[in-house]
Specification:
seven-stranded mixed beta sheet, alpha/beta, globular, Rossmann fold
Length: 187
C-alpha cells in the first residue's frame, strides 16, 4: 500500500507546463487516433480522462481509482494483466507510458486483444532514453524497432508512428517528455 500512496503522490506533482503540453498538444494528437468507446490503461490521475470525459480508465493503483471516482470519472481497478471488462468492449485503447513498466507484456497484450473490438486501434506511447532513465520503475526500454517486434509477436499490425512533441534525435536524450507512439491493430 505504501508504494501505491507514493506513486499517487508522485503523479500529482506533474508540472503545470507539463499539463499544458498534454492538454493542448499531446492529447489532441493522441485523440485523433482514438474512436468510439475508449479505454485508458494505466490512467494514473486521469489527465486524459479529464480531456476526454467519455473515456473509461483502469489502473492497478486503487488510490488513484478511488480519487478519480470521487471526481466523477469512469475508472476501475485492474489486477495486473487482467482487464475487468467483457470481450469486445472497446473501439480503441490507449497505453500512454505504461508498457515500459511491464517486464513481460504478453499477458496484458492478450487481454487488450480480448477487449478490443475488431478493427479497433491500440495507441501505445513509450518514453525516449531520458524519460526512460528518469523512473526507477521502468523495466524495458522500447525504441521504434523494439516496439514493432513486441507487437508483431503479440499478433498486432503496426499502422502508424508519431513522436511527441515531434521526431528529433536530440529530444530522445535530453527531453524527459519525448515519446514514441505506435498505432496498432489486431492482425
Amino acid at each position: 500500500m505504501a508504494d501505491h500512496q507514493e506513486y499517487f503522490e508522485y503523479l500529482k506533482k506533474r508540472s503545470k507546463l507539463g499539463l499544458i503540453y498534454r492538454r493542448w498538444w499531446l492529447y489532441p494528437k493522441i485523440s485523433s487516433y482514438l474512436q468510439g468507446d475508449t479505454l485508458d490503461i494505466g490512467c494514473g490521475i486521469g489527465d486524459m480522462l479529464r480531456y476526454r470525459p467519455e473515456m473509461t480508465g483502469v489502473d492497478v493503483n486503487p488510490l488513484t481509482i478511488d480519487w478519480l471516482k470521487s471526481q466523477g470519472m469512469k475508472a476501475h481497478v485492474m489486477q495486473p494483466d487482467l482487464l475487468p471488462f467483457e470481450d469486445n468492449s472497446f473501439d480503441s485503447i490507449l497505453m500512454d507510458n505504461v508498457l515500459e513498466h511491464i517486464s513481460s507484456p504478453a499477458a496484458i497484450l492478450a487481454e487488450v486483444r480480448r477487449v478490443l473490438r475488431s478493427h479497433g486501434k491500440l495507441v501505445v506511447g513509450v518514453p525516449g532514453l531520458r524519460g526512460y532513465a528518469s523512473d526507477p520503475d521502468h523495466k524495458i526500454f522500447y525504441d521504434k524497432e523494439k516496439l514493432v517486434r513486441c507487437f508483431i509477436s503479440a499478433e498486432y499490425r503496426p499502422v502508424e508512428f508519431f513522436y511527441s512533441p515531434f521526431k528529433f534525435r536530440w529530444f530522445d536524450k535530453y527531453l524527459r517528455q519525448y515519446c514514441t507512439f505506435g498505432v496498432f491493430e489486431i492482425k
